[in-house]
Design brief:
Layout: H1 3-13, H2 18-30, E1 35-40, H3 45-57, E2 62-66, H4 76-79, E3 87-91, H5 98-107, E4 111-115, E5 133-137, H6 146-151, E6 154-156, H7 169-186, H8 196-210, H9 214-224
Parallel strand pairs: 1-2, 1-5, 2-3, 4-5, 4-6
């Protein structure tokens, strides 16, 4: 964080309750970027929102949204405010944006993991977590694009024992995230926590989103600290 952001966080923190600050710390303890989620062309608002809700509940901070043929829509009744606490990264500049998302994630050190019910590779219990993983989920009807299946570093499937071909995408995300984050929490040799700087960045962002008159508070801060406004 910059000195200005550190000072701003200190200033804004006095306007939120101690209970809210304590809640921030409780949530930050379980927040991670070791696992991230990529949604390729998801368009049904119910499913899109349910995935975001699962990410928040299981401590996954970042969601990467790839818009190729469909725009990503959120159902506010399902998401229950979870987007307020997550970082959403959009890829929608060209006709096919999946390669850009993969390049960005690889640069950040992620293994790309395709969620494919027909691949006999890893299960949620055996998927390697020694390096950060980006779980890619596809559209409700067509599933993942051929590009994802062909260019993913790993593939994971959730075992099924019935007649139905696959789980609903929101159910798949919830099952995978539950198992994988539980494995992280039980691990003694994986550094999955956020850094202190990352925590401070989220403290500031969450504090901003908590305060209803944030522009007024920021103007007051600017008036008190003109040295940061040059």
């Amino acid at each position: 964080m910059t000195p200005r952001d550190q000072a701003l966080l200190h200033f804004l923190s006095q306007f939120i309750t101690d209970e809210r600050k304590q809640r921030f710390e409780e949530v930050l303890h379980y927040r991670t970027r070791h696992i991230t989620v990529v949604l390729e062309d998801i368009f049904q608002p119910h499913n899109a929102s349910a995935v975001l809700r699962s990410c928040d509940l299981r401590g996954v901070q970042d969601v990467h949204i790839v818009e190729n043929n469909n725009s990503y829509e959120v159902n506010p009744e399902v998401v229950m405010g979870s987007t307020k606490w997550l970082n959403l990264h959009y890829y929608n500049k060209v006709e096919f944006n999946t390669p850009e998302a993969f390049e960005n994630l690889h640069e950040k050190g992620y293994r790309i993991v395709a969620t494919c019910p027909h691949r006999e590779d890893f299960t949620p219990e055996t998927l390697p977590l020694d390096k950060p993983v980006a779980l890619v989920f596809g559209t409700e009807k067509q599933g993942l694009s051929d590009y994802v299946v062909d260019h993913a570093d790993l593939h994971v499937r959730i075992p099924m024992f019935g007649f139905t071909e696959s789980y609903n995408i929101s159910v798949s995300a919830a099952l995978l995230l539950y198992t994988l984050t539980d494995r992280l929490h039980a691990s003694t040799d994986i550094d999955w926590h956020l850094s202190e700087e990352e925590k401070d960045e989220l403290r500031l962002e969450w504090t901003r989103r908590t305060l209803t008159r944030i522009r007024q508070y920021e103007r007051k801060f600017a008036a008190l600290h003109p040295e940061f406004e040059h």
